[in-house]
Records
---
Amino acid sequence: MHRLTANQGRRRKAYKTGKMPMSGSYADIYKRSIADPEGFWGEAAEAITWSKPWDKVLDDQNAPFYRWFSGAETNVCYNAVDRHVENGRADQAAIIYDSPVTDTKQTITYKELQDQVARLAGVLRKQGVGKGDRVLIYMPMIPQAAYAMLACARLGAIHSVVFGGFAAKELATRINDSAPKAVLCASCGIEPGRVVHYKPLLDEAISLATSKPETVIMYQRPQEKGSLIEGRDFDWEEEIKTAEPAECVTMKATDPLYVLYTSGTTGKPKGVVRDCGGYMVALCWSMKNLYNVAPGDVYWAASDVGWVVGHSYIVYGPLLNGNTTIIFEGKPVGTPDPGTFWRVISEHKVKALFTAPTAFRAIKKEDPEGSYLKKYDMSGFQTLFLAGERCDPDTFVWAQKLLNVPVVDHWWQTETGWAICANPVGIEEFPAKPGSAALPMPGWDMKVLDPNQIPQAPGQIGALVAKLPMPPGAMPTLWNDDERFVESYMKDFPGYYKTGDAGIIDEDGYIHVMSRTDDVINVAGHRLSTGEMEEVLASHQDVAECAVIGVYDKLKGQVPLGFVVLKSGVDRDHHEIAHEVVKMVRDQIGPVAAFKHATVVKRLPKTRSGKILRGTMQKIADGNDYNMPATIDDPNILPEIEESLQDIGFAQKAG
Ligand code: COA
Ligand code: AMP
């Protein structure tokens, strides 16, 4: 492609008029983003290098399929890697890989990153991968996972990363939906106490899938080598040695960068599409104004590349902003102890840490006094960011007291790509309210509506919705499924994006996200579908009917719990059947579902119209008081349910 140049004309104009991009108070910035979205995001886009400027900042010709920066051309890999090499960051660390599970540490400079990524892109190109082709990435937390994503971005291929904790069948579903031309994978992952055999899982998934990738490029890890299938599989390192580096390909700002699957209400995951231009603009804005880090600072998102947090804030956000990003292969506890996070922060001079509240609950459980913290110099640490699930006020306050830095609970989703709500510490820090994700970020015009679309008064719970258009960074559609995009997100509240979360906006405008309004649960910050688990349970030969609900868990926030009703005439041991369905979920969805408990019941409690009373079942399982629902078809069922749950350790009353 021709060399990318900065959009200097526009930049000069911005400086000349003295209107520096988005400075001022949060209130001014936010107001302007809503009143003048094109002006606001047009200025924010100055942080990005474009090879051709946009025709229109916001293209609303085909609403609700909004497009940002239509007509513009750019390349995400160029912006995340090459321009930093050209602009004096060649020798700065781009990635620090810290892996307590393999006892490895490695620093990769921007120049080295460019070399690896360009060569890997060359390997893919040799295999016929080009613009618009899909590439599936199935890798653990190693630097090669980031190289893989960036190599795709360099070529204009659309990557789809699948989290390592999913089973072969889940992988197969994603292969079928995205129809990848190639797969980039590693031979294994390392979980504490066990090696995850990625290659056999991938082989099984490909054999299950109806769409067959032509090529597999496999990174052989020393902990376990994977077998190569002649003609289809290639050794990553061998190929890299002789690869011709590939240049960045010019992409439209509106072209897809990736597809990331996330749980919906059914067994078919939703392929969230992300564009190139709007995403870069939103991420760059957030690195400075929300996460408060400057180019050169060390930033750490302790998540996984398989989740949206990994896409936005392990790989793209920090690299676009010229930060050093940490790729951490370990857990908050047990690798080797609850001081691991503090060690990484002090050793690599981390300024901002982003993780899930579960990680802090795990640390708190093992080291409630925070004694491990005393061993480390945390003086450079600035801010803790939490997201991925509701943060309970206890954990929030504990983290705040322990670390003595601002703690920011922020709310977002795979669909949105970056935060809907946060405390924008890079602009100004507002008093935190534990249990709240604070204030809307630019472009997010949030409302709480009742089912009839009537706005709720401050403090009243309802559906959390965002007035359209959503800001740049949010999904433009679902992969190959415009219809489902409209059906799932746009239909119930015309003119708004339905987040699927319920919550309140209080008198101060703070948003409190309370629960999901659908069959999605959050287990240790991982988003899972109870509907999908029900589909697995229902496929057991002895099961007539079933339900899966999320119940309270002290560590993981929620865990799934299954109820099965047996077909008449089935006279087998109930515990055996419960074990079988537990195993089925692990085998078909994966260990990440953390589905460990199921119970056989005679009947499911239902309303007279046949709706399963999940809310009441949840209250019983959590040991909370409940009222007998007026619409229940048979009140005698509930004591039976309580008894079955007590048998497996649930439904325990406090005290
Ligand atoms: N590949 C393969 N298996 C994986 C995996 C991966 N990348 N990640 C997790 N798993 C497996 C685990 O080994 C575990 O299997 P097991 O049932 O055999 O023990 C299962 O999936 C559940 O994993 P996890 O949710 O990590 O629970 P855990 O009990 O192993 O660890 C915590 C508990 C709190 C330490 C862990 O949940 C954690 O670190 N949470 C932080 C949350 C987080 O990073 N969320 C990301 C979104 S921001
Ligand atoms: P995911 O798409 O995996 O990022 O999960 C998104 C979901 O996680 C949201 O819809 C919420 O239900 C939940 N979530 C994420 N962040 C928060 C938060 N800060 N507070 C409450 N819930 C959150």
Note: The chain has 19 helices and 31 strands.
---
Amino acid sequence: MEVREPDGATVAMGEPVAAGAACVAEPPRIRRLDESVVNRIAAGEVIQRPVSAVKELVENSLDAGSTSISVVVKDGGLKLIQVSDNGHGIRSEDLPILCERHTTSKLSAYEDLQSIKSMGFRGEALASMTYVGHVTVTTITEGQLHGYRVSYRDGVMEHEPKPCAAVRGTQIMVENLFYNMIARRKTLQNANDDYAKIVDLISRFAIHNSNVSFSCRKHGVNRADVHTVTTLSKLDAIKTIYGISVARDLMEITVSDDNPSRSIFEMNGFISNANYTAKKTTMVLFINDRLVECTSLKRAVEVVYSSTLPKASRPFIYMSINLPSEHVDVNIHPTKREVSLLNQESLIETIQNAVESKLMTCNTTRTFQTQTVSCAPASNFTARKDTEISPSISGTKSQKVPVNQMVRTDSRDPFGRLHAYWQDCPASQHEKKSDLASVRIAVRQRRNPRESADLTSIHELLNEIDQNIHPGLLEIVKNCTYIGLAEEVFALLQHNTHLYLVNVVNVSKELMYQQVIRRFAHFNAIQLSEPAPLPELLILALKDEDLESGGDNDDELRKKIAEMNTELLKQKGEMLEEYFCININQEGNLMRLPVILEQHTPDMDHIPEFLLSLANDVDWENEKECFQAISAVLGNFYAMHPPVLPNPAGDGIEFYKKINGKAASIDDADDHGQDDLDQELLAEAETAWAQREWNIQHVLFPSMRLFLKPPKSMATDGTFVQVASLEKLYKIFERC
Ligand code: ADP
Ligand code: MG
């Protein structure tokens, strides 16, 4: 294989030792390699592909204690890799040596390797990147007023660090990777291939580090290909990344051994059951929190699957193994991809046995517990046959629970949800589509945080939220199970033996409001793809208002009001930008909006009314009332209102008959076939509705559990309505 570097002869491996051996009289001279060559060769080992650079950068971010890491990639990583985190940052005085080889903050003596907890320790990664690419670091440490930005080449700074605006943490940008290694660049031409590897890598990190939110997207694309919110449940993380169809077929597994003569370890994770089929095995393995590969363990597990569940012999496996750090040698591979374990055979055997017995029980469970569940005929979905019921519900244990008190025990258990009974139906296609669409996320904008969150008015508003909590509702919110959407604005929730109807619009409005107050002045930004001109949007909103109120149709007046309001909002622009990340430029265009809830973008159809209420409903004089009103206006805008297009699933279908649309013609009117409908609009509406439903289940409810502090008013204003109690229902049935 060609290993010559572009600049040719100086590369060690380019020197042919045996070339023309027969006629060489003297042995070739041994020369000391130029240091830059040594460094580049070493760098090529650490950074083998773009994905290795991403791995090193993400590990650094995790080592820095980050809770949010986002990755942006251009051309499969060859043009750009950018990793931003909110970790502890890098001291400005360390910047001069940051990218020298063997400079690290994580290890000082060799013995430390025995107990090393951080992922890095060699101090080689950043240095290597500067030998094969252009590295720029932007970072800020806590308590600093501004950050620093500096670029590196070949291990050294290209210039003094420049002060710059930065938000908490570090952003590292690697551009033009392998610019000086033409052969390597050539072998890496397939950008899609490398991007897929990066997405796969981030997905793996995101499962194991479910307490960290990850996002990964291509440069210039708003939609992230991986996007997770922080959650304590690994299964939830798997569900977000690999989809419910994978998560549904997983079983939890734990095993440990504490016998020094065999092995000492603990393992926990998830493995797929008999229903899971895939073309290849997915094995996500972490040993002492390091993402590693272990071919022998993978083989051992595959063997068990093919002998126990031949039809499901390509499993999905996530395992996290912990063992005493002195039993692991992390220093056997330059990229730390492999580790060597003490008593590896015995450990693998114990895990193999555990997997085997788990699969045996799942096999028998399946035969005994398979039953037909039929859906309500009213639904559009076809019922899933042979649905496996969670053993915790119908297994032996549950028989001890009086039947009238049987409830879903795990609020995150998918078997408890309506969705668990639906499969291979249009809904699942929607889910996939909307899954992608709804994880469209914001462009992260690094901004300069001010001391603004210390404003007393914000403290007061936060206190008011806390003092106004309804404890009963809080308990329901924290521990409920989402069942499904009952109709356009109501979702069904179960809590213990009670069933509740919950007004999704009210709940989301309140949640967004509270989040605005909590994130005050610390928002990431959603960059609008096109500037949104305020005057035109305000005129639209005014027209809508006039239509509703039957007001007069005075275009001139509307234009005047719109102009005044635009001026007003432009005047308040600095404050709106600084505290709420609502950016209005000098030309009167709305450019940016805040991210209030990760994964959620507001319905842009509501921008006109949002701008109008911002101009009309805010009292700009009193600070506290002003902040409260702006937060409420934002809350209303971001709330999960029903889409503007009527729901095609019900009576709304009338709306899509062409006679009402622009394409209507007299001839069409008699024709009642499919062509009668405006298919394009219909598809748009279906996507919007499916996406909203997905958002409610996967974004609203998980965030509600985490963040919502339900105010007392929600107990009486129809936001939460108890519709049934299992005990009472049973009493009624007993009487019948
Ligand atoms: P290592 O991780 O082996 O120490 P690296 O070359 O990856 O070596 O990083 C060098 C040093 O730079 C780290 O020890 C750490 O102190 C600092 N560093 C790198 N990335 C980050 C980051 N994202 N946040 C904070 N510090 C970082
Ligand atoms: Mg490192």
Note: Residues 1-21, 364-453, 660-672 have pLDDT under 50 and may be disordered.
---
Amino acid sequence: MDITLTQTTNRQWVDLVEEYSHKSEPIINIHREDTRKFDAIFIGGGAGGRFGSGYLRAMGGRQLIIDRWPFLGGSCPHQACVPHHLFSEAARELDLMRWFSGKLWFPDATNLRASILQMVELFKSGRGTAHAFMNWQSKEQLDLEYILNASATVIDAHTVEAAGERFYADNLVLGIGAAPLSPDISGVGLHGVYNYSTFIEELDFEPQRCVVIGGSKTGIEYSSFFQATGCPTTLVARKPLMRTSGLHHVDEDLRTYVVDGMRKRGLTIIEGHEPVEIRGDSEGHVKEVVIRDMSTGEQQVLPCDFVFLATGERPRSEHFQQVLGVAVGEKGEILVDKHMRTSVPNIYAIGDLVGSPMEMFKARKSGVTAARNIMGEESELDWTNYPDFLHSTYEISWVGLSEEEAKQHFENVIIIQMPPKGVPLADIPLPCAEGTMLYAFMYPELSGFLKAVVDGDTRKVLGFHHVGFGAKDAFQYLDYLLRRPEGLTIDEMGNMNELFLNPEHFIQLCRLRAGSPNLRDL
Ligand code: FAD
Ligand code: COM
């Protein structure tokens, strides 16, 4: 279908995407009358390809996106971030209902069971509006050219084939993301075993007992959701939670608060173990997972009817390695320099395809960086340090150094923390703000945790760490302030204007100490 000259509304796009997801015909939006060569073809229209294209177009260039799905936006609105946030919000609501069961206006939740299947179906019934918006915004507002519902095959460094046609460009930008990795054990193909992608596409029964394999962010987030629905869940991880290589700068006190909190909610967490085998019943449905203690070798069997694999992702680099010869790293990630250039001239790679961190900010900014360089503007991207977050039933955000890291590099580290060190959590209903007020008044130990790490000599803040709700946005800006060459001092922090009760209490806590020439812990 050639849609170039049709002005399609968001509502119409919902139906079109649905229709085309059942057929192999491409959706074409190309300005055939434009005789300019493409500055770049973006292979993959996920967050990386879409933002890269948008920026390149805004700079006056000509781009083409080719995506195998009938919509733009990639895995985020389809199977990844958006469902994750929907499920994490459900987990938060359910958690509140369980703690307040029979109290105030809350109904008795003793037998509360939320349907996991229904939540997946709710997501699937609504995701079409996000798909539609991506297509509509890209065409009508951003003036992007694209071919959807068509796989791209690279012919050479300037030629790509899709929908039976060849397209030529000065540069190629590779951004086809990563695929879920399965552990190398038997039984992963049984009915009842899912990863984040098949969970959305294929779940067809109501899980009754769940085992999550892998302590990744996804493992923590989805196991917290499953447990919150009332489905008894066991999370099996090789390493201590939040100590996986994918997460940097995790503060130990924050980690303890989060993991203890997950256990308080009834989640069974088994660290230091690896899966050995998934076994099925006579009908081919999963019935148990065998795991092994990595230090003693001792095995145990976990009965379940549902297994969720959260064992990471692998960049989809094979095709580009074979056809273009781009250099890749140990995990299959395409190697790029700070300009997002691969080892092959005029070939750029972006997003999850270039390895971890597999996060939206990196996907989008790497696309933009490639676009700027293609358009002749020198631009570098450095993702060595970045703010991070995840969900349990809480929202957990952090940026900068942990207390332990700071103490390795600085002699006079000051800690500003709530509840303060050494004070039992249940003694102080702080921090509290949006989302934790009810907890603060009935279960003070559940009202969250925060810590600021300060260099007492320079008075610069080195890190912020927060467990609660509503603070994630602040961390985006705190990250920016911390990473400025001049950094951010406790005095500047104390001089900011809080919107009390603010989700993170850093401003007022810093102010309480800022008057002193010799900083002390708080
Ligand atoms: P993708 O979005 O995967 O896009 C790749 C595109 O390439 C797809 O559209 C695909 O159809 C297309 N494609 C593949 N092969 C071809 C081909 N041969 N021809 C044409 N097109 C092709 N990050 C966050 O920052 N916040 C979050 O809350 C968050 N939650 C997440 C939750 C989960 C469960 C997961 C798995 C990830 C989450 N992420 C989150 C990470 C985030 O989703 C990714 O980092 C991001 O989507 C990567 O974007 P991308 O453009 O690199 O790849
Ligand atoms: C967001 C997808 S869900 S994109 O980054 O706007 O393309």
Note: Residues 10-76+123-179+314-374 form a domain with the FAD/NAD(P)-binding domain fold (CATH 3.50.50.60).
---
Amino acid sequence: MKNMTTLQLFLDQKDRVEPLHIYYTFSERHKYIRNALYFLSYALEHNLNVLFLEEDTVYQEIRVQLLKTYSSEKVDTIMYQDSMQFYLNGKQFDADRNSEHVLSLLTPLLEKGEHILIWGQVLFPSENSLSQLRQYEMNCDKFISEKHITSVCAYNGLTIPAYVQTELLKTHKYFMTDDEVTISGLYQREHLQSFSDHDRKRIANIERKNRQLIHDNENLCEAYEIIARKKKDYWKLLKELPIPILISKDDTLVYANERALADLELPPFENIKGESIFNFIHFTDHFLEQKWINTLQSNQEFEMKEVELKLENDSIKTFKLKSIFTWYKESESILHVLIDLTPYKLLEKKMIRAEKLNLAGQLAAGIAHEIKNPLTSIKGFYKLIKYGMGKEKYFNIIDDELDRIEQIANEFLILSKPHSDIFKIHSISRIIEEVKTLLETQAIIKGNDIITSYPEEELLIKCEETKIKQVFVNLLKNAVEATKNGHIYVTVKKQLDFVDIIIQDEGCGISKEALSKISEPFFTTKEKGTGLGLLICDKIIENHNGMRSIESTEGVGTTFTITFPLTKGQQTYIPVDPILYNDLSTHV
Ligand code: ADP
Ligand code: MG
């Protein structure tokens, strides 16, 4: 290219008389050092005054090189200034202060008419310095031209923005890179005079836009940092949370945390990675499992409060399962949370049993009393018969009394029987009648009357008989304990697909404050109460997909309403929610 030459050739031009103001944008450090070294050597070689503005470390490196050729006295003739202190001095870049500073250093020499060389690496300090920088270079260009100075203004090409470079090329006649020097096509002599209004506005505009860009960039960096932090947190959560988590992508397992591998008794992750998730998660209920698979494959999330899974070693555990959409390694995936409920289920079973035994114990006294009466009359009539005073009707009385004893003993046994855990279809009115038998004595002792009413149609529910009886024994017992000389109404009503069992007493009622606590464990207002009865009733009702509500007024009485789904044959409508339908079909 025309006019192009290396710095060496350029300085060596014997016929060069005009001043040199070079804009140097460097990008390779070793070439920068080589060029600076050549510049200083040229000055020393020709006994010229040279001002060198650089960082101390760079200067020390160059000085070592110079000392290989020149004496230290000679090298010390270089006027060295630390560029950081020279240009910024802990403050903003100030064009006038800096150009005056250069002039004050050079004036004594210029007055003697000596030729001067300047090399300075100019620091571009902050976003607002373009106008200052340009003003500085304009000032420099002016006295460089007037005083016939040779000056290289070096800028770091890797950090200086292109818009600044473009502006600076207008104030330098020459443009230099690490390897070449050429004439700057943008150089404008009129800049030697002053900024035009138009120019000032234009630069202010550039600076404003640049500030906005820097601001946007900072926001982006911040957002990026937040995203990066969140990503890290997400990973940490997945790894450290003591909750079993699996992630699948297109049905394939892509992630499993330690807890999931342990709770689901799975082989090491490496061995199952990439396999279909449906290969190692098996429900005991195949119908439900198919539902889960279909739900996920039709891009819907899935949740199941309790589901039994059959593990590799054939053991069965109960889990809460939730499958939700998530992002994993930049693509849509499904995150499965599986919480092992097995220990809680065992605890719950134990609690239900303990409370049942407690109920049976409490009932025993009343039952003994109930059995004692018929026994006394049987004994009396037996004696009469023994001594030949028997009449036909005594046998009938003895038969009736024996039936009554048998009935009570049977009921008592049912309550004390271990849980069968088998859901069967039972008549709700029969269950209630049998529970009534157990509680009647206690009711009579307290002057209470238990009045039952049933619809004509026999209503059936699918349930565990002993557990449902346990619920009604506790509710009826609570009603009897709260009531004195009053009525206890037990009403069974059909409501579409459900049956309501309403237990209404005329007892002491429950205060508003106590009402919020009655289901809490160990809340009791009774001297010998356990405070576990209602809590266990709620658990059993929940396991039967039922509901419980309560209304109570102090001094008036309390009404409990229990609702259970009817067996399918008796339902007026089939429920539409597939998941709920599922739940019902498994348990009820
Ligand atoms: P417990 O009968 O051992 O006290 P429960 O859980 O069965 O335990 O009942 C908790 C409390 O709820 C009772 O102590 C009582 O204060 C209140 N409660 C329950 N049912 C009734 C009722 N029908 N009338 C008044 N209070 C009741
Ligand atoms: Mg109770």
Note: The first strand starts at residue 20 and ends at 26.
